[in-house]
């Protein structure tokens, strides 16, 4: 009886191994590896953060107002071209479809769709639970 169970187990393993050899392979393509934000700040997240995931649809010619983030924010450009201007550093960043953005912390910046197609972003925030991650600049 033991021999039958052992033989059956071996055959089952061999059968699953041959199935695995014929199965499609999973492809993993790194998009970004970094320890800093777009402006070179170290990435920091609060202990036990709340994760908030959103999508942003930015029409051609539309702009996000100047704002800053007290907590870490990431964005993946799903479609379009986005221009981000950092008022604190006088830097301008240009992102295209497929780019991953590690947004700046506590620096005034704004985004604009200067392209010819709508921008779609997948945005991920890591915040202290219950706290907002967007502070809009006061009106001039």
Task: Explain what the structure shows.
The longest helix has 21 residues, at 2-22. The chain has one helix and nine strands; from the N terminus they run H-E-E-E-E-E-E-E-E-E. It has 140 residues and is of the alpha+beta class. The chain has a domain at 50-136: Jelly Rolls, CATH 2.60.120.10. It is 15% helix and 35% strand. The strands form three sheets. It has a four-stranded antiparallel beta sheet with strand order 1-8-3-6, with no helix packed on it. It has a three-stranded antiparallel beta sheet with strand order 5-4-7, with no helix packed on it. A two-stranded antiparallel ribbon has the order 2-9.
Give the gist of this structure.
With about 140 residues, the chain is an alpha+beta fold. The protein contains 1 helix and 9 strands.
Task: Describe the protein's topology.
Elements: H1 2-22, E1 50-58, E2 67-68, E3 72-79, E4 81-86, E5 91-96, E6 100-102, E7 109-112, E8 119-127, E9 135-136
Antiparallel strand pairs: 1-8, 2-9, 3-6, 3-8, 4-5, 4-7
Low-confidence stretches: none
Q: Widest sheet: strand order?
A: 1-8-3-6
The H-and-E topology, N to C, reads as HEEEEEEEEE
What class do helices, strands and sheet pairing give?
alpha+beta
Shape, please? globular
């Amino acid at each position: 009886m033991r021999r039958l169970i052992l033989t059956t187990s071996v055959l089952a393993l061999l059968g699953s191994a041959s199935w695995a050899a014929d199965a499609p392979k999973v492809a993993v393509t790194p998009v970004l590896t970094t320890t800093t934000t777009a402006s070179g700040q170290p990435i920091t997240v609060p202990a036990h953060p709340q994760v908030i995931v959103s999508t942003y649809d930015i029409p051609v010619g539309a702009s996000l107002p100047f704002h800053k983030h007290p907590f870490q924010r990431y964005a993946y450009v799903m479609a379009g071209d986005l221009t981000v201007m950092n008022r604190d550093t006088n830097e301008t960043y240009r992102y295209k479809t497929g780019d991953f953005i590690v947004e700046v912390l506590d620096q005034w910046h704004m985004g604009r769709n200067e392209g010819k197609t709508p921008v779609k972003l997948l945005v991920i925030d890591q915040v202290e639970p219950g706290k907002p991650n967007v502070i809009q600049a006061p009106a001039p």
